[in-house]
Every structure is written in structure tokens, then in C-alpha cells.
Amino acid sequence: MTNSILILISTLLSLLVGGALGFLSFRSYRNRLLARAHEEAQEILENTQDDLDLLRIEQQEIKQEIELELWTRVEAELLKAEEKVEDLQILADDKKKKLDDKYSQLKNLMIQQENTLKDKEKLILAEQQKWNQKKAVALDLKKQFSEKIIERFSYKPEDIKKEIQEQLENETKRRAEKHLLELEEDLKDNAETQAKHILDVALDRFVRPYCAERGIGSVHLPDPGARKIFADPRINQTIQKACGCDIIIEDGQETIGVAGFDPVRRELTRRVLEKLIKNKRDLNPAGIERVAEQTRKELFKQIQQDGDTLARELKVPELHSEIKQMMGSLRYRYSFTQNQYFHCGEVGWLAGLLASELKANVKQARRSGLLHDIGKSMDHAMDGGHAMIGADFIEKRGEKVEIVHNVRAHHYDVTPNSDEAFLVIAADAISGARPGARRSTIETYNQKVSEIQDISMSFEGVTDCYVLNGGRECRVTVNSRKVNDVLALEYSKKIAERIEDECSYPGQIKVVVVRETSVAESTLSK
Fold first, then answer.
1. What is the DSSP secondary-structure string of 335-365?
2. CA dist., res. 372 & res. 391, Å (int)
3. Measured CA angle at 250 (ends 248, 255), to 5 deg
4. How far is CA 122 from CA 119, 125, 133, in A?
5. What CATH fold (topology level) applies to the domain 218-433?
């Protein structure tokens, strides 16, 4: 047992000693290998460094060869360039020297001129001092001379100044008057053309429909029995009392005429008669009064609505209720068969359009045109012209002074003093002169024709006169032996001027003078 243990221990020791010796041997071998590898690496590095040194030497030699070759190629050109640069330098030096010499000369000349100017300035200052002294002496002499003249002729400086001022004022006035005359002549030459252009533009823009409505002053009777009923004095008087108008029933007529100054009452009477004809059960005093009262309320309501409609259509705000009512009542007022309600609307629109073309106050012109004939709704009950009546009426109801003046001046009851007033006058004339707008009665038409014919026939040599186109043209025939071409031209102007001065008419009348030559020849029988 003991021997086995000893053997085992000796074996282990042998193994340990062998391992240690093996490790030492391996380590010594590895160190020798590393040393050898280090020596080889050092040798390789030294060989490589030698190769690099040789390569650098070769490159340097190649570089020197290339530089030598290049220098050989460009040496001649560089020499030429250097020679050229030297020549240019010499030339630049010469030019610089010349410029320096010239600059020196100019500088010296400028210095001389400055010295000369300084000398002249001194002379000028000296002369100016002498001039100031002489001027002061002259002023003293002038003052003394003026004082002596004033003293001798007893003039005062204030009077002389005043006289000179008056002369200047008179000269200025004369020049201003001359300029105004030139402007007036120019205006006369161009005013008519410009006015026609503005009227054409305004009328082209005016798209309001034309109203050809005419007033109805009678009521048709359906049968003879109805005529007998309304001819009854009791019925007749009751209707007249309830409506405020006279009713006229003539023998042989199938209509009932309505007569009265108030157009609203005439319309009321006409409506009452139409209702009574349709409903004969109300043909008694109580029924007539009831129908009249009911119709009156309906009519006044319609009048108020018409006034509101017209004010809204023309965009006239803040119009007094009584003014609207009077405007609505114009719905039943006619002038030369032209409805005044629609006429006022037309004038309002036309005045506004003309104002817009002339850069005037559009709102004021439109309002004035709308209200210009409001007096016609009251002229049957008040004394005076409708322009004055209407102006007073709207003035009391808060209309502005400008509007009141435009209404009052539209028939020249007062002198117009504003652009809008003249525009209302023009718009009123345009509305009345529209074709078919107004119709004259037979009496007024015959009177107009007679006046035109009398004026035309009053000229010597006139043989005949014809009024054509509803009074719009006057054709005058003259004797060619007594009236030559020049005199015929004068006749046309004179006749037109007399018609314009002596006759009243809407629109224009064209005057045509015809020289008539008659030639006749007769034959003899064989």
C-alpha cells in the first residue's frame, strides 16, 4: 500500500517536472521564433526603404529632365514675352511722363485762371460797391424828384397809388372780359353739340315704359232703363252730394258725363256710378251713401299705395306721408291728356340721368323732378300757379330749400339758380315732348295752326302755308319771282324765330321754305 502511494507520488512528480520542462522548452522556442521574425521584418523594412529612396531619386531625375525639356521648349517664347513686356513698360513710362507733363501744364493754367477770376471778383465787388453807391444816390434823387413833383402838382402818394391800382384793376377787368367773351364764343360753338350728346345718352339709358293712358270722364249706360233711373232728380242729387261732382245726362247719349274741378272726386264719382250700374239694388239714398263711402276708402287707400310705389321706384327716402298722398292723387290728373302721375316719374328719372351725365347731384335732381308738378294735385282748389303752390306745400312739410327752389323755378316763376333746377326744366320739357305724350284738343290745335299760318303769311312773297305732321312742320311756299334763294333762307330763319317767340308748343317745329316755279304751255287744235 505504501509502495503504491510512493509510486503514484513519484509518477505525479515526474509528470510535473516533465510538464515544466516542456513549457520552458516551448517558451524558449517561441522566443527564438519571434526574434527571428523581428529580424526578418526589420530586414524587409530596410529593403523597402532603400527601394523608396531609389524611386524618389529616379522621380527627381525624371522631373528634372521634364523641366529641362519644357524650359527648352518655352524659353524662346518667354524671352520674347519678356522683351515685349519691357517694350510696353518703356511705352507706358513715356505716356505717363507725357500725361504728367500735361497735368502739370493744366494745373498751372488752372491756377492762373483762378488768380484771374479772383482779380475779376475783386473788380466786380468794387464795381458793385460803386453801383450801390450810385443806386443810393439815384434813389435819393428819385425821392427828391417825386417829392418835388408831388409838391408842385399837389399830388399825394396815396392818390398816385390809388390811381395806379385803378389802372391795373381796369386792365385786369378788360383782360378778364376779353377772356370771358372768348370762352362764351367757344361755349356757343360747342354747347349745342355737347347738349345733344348728353340728351342722347340720357334718353338711351331711360328704359321706363311709356304710359299712353288717357283719362275717362264718362260712364257707359248699358240700357235705356238705366238712363231713366239716373235721370231721376232724387238719385241724381244724392250722387252729386255724396261724390261732390256734377253728373250730366243728355238726351240721345248712352253715357253719363262727370264734371268737376277735383280729379279725385271725378274718379270717385265715376267708380260710384259703375258700381251702382252693376248693383241696382243700391240705387237709393242710403245705398248710394254707403257705396260712396266704401269707394272713397278704397280710392284713398289706392292713392296712398300709388304714392308709396312712386317714391320707392325713384328711391326717394323720407318723403312726408301727405306728400306721398298728393303724388298718388296725380294718378287721376291729366295735362294735355298726359297722366301727371307717370309724367312726374319720368321727369324724376330723366333729371337724375342728366345729373349723372353732368356730374351734378343725382339724388337732389331726381327728388326735385319727382315733386315738380305736385302742385297740380291742388291747383283746382287754390289760387296761383301749380309751381308756387307745390313749392309752398312741400316747404311746409320739411323739404330742403334746394328742392323747394327747384320746384318753384321749373316754370321760371323764380329765376333758377342751380344746375339741378335747370335739369328739372329740361327733363320736364323732354317728358312733355315725347312722341304721343300729349294731345291737344281740337280748339288748341286749330289755334296753334292758325298762329303758325298767320306768322308765315305775313311775309311778302309767301303764296301758301301748310302745317304738317301734327303741327311739327311748317311748309311755306313762296313766289320764285319775288323771293330769291338768299331771301328764302332769311325767311326760314325769321319765320322760325317768330314762331319760337310768339307761339307756345312742346318739342320743335321744322320750317321749310319752298320756291315754286310754275310753267304752263297750251296747244292749238288743227
1. ETTEEHHHHHHHHHHHHHHHHHHTT--HHHH
2. 8
3. 70
4. 5, 5, 17
5. Hypothetical protein af1432 (1.10.3210)
Quick one: cell of 194? Answer: 355737347
| The CATH fold of domain 442-516 | GMP Synthetase; Chain A, domain 3 (3.30.300)
11-62 pLDDT, tens digit each: 777 777 777 777 777 777 778 888 888 888 888 888 888 888 888 888 888 8
- Considering the entire predicted model, what is its pTM? 0.52
Higher pLDDT, 481 or 188: 481
Question: Which cell numbers hold the place of 268?
Answer: 270717385
Gap between the Cα atoms of 495 and 513, Å rounded: 10
Whole-number percent of the chain with pLDDT over 90: 24
Q: Which sequence spans correspond to the domains of the chain? A: 157-186, 218-433, 442-516
More confident of the two residues 228 and 344: 344
The H or E element that residue 423 is part of is helix 419-433
* Strands of 27-176, DSSP E: none
Beta strands in 239-384 (DSSP E): 246-248, 255-259, 334-335, 338-339
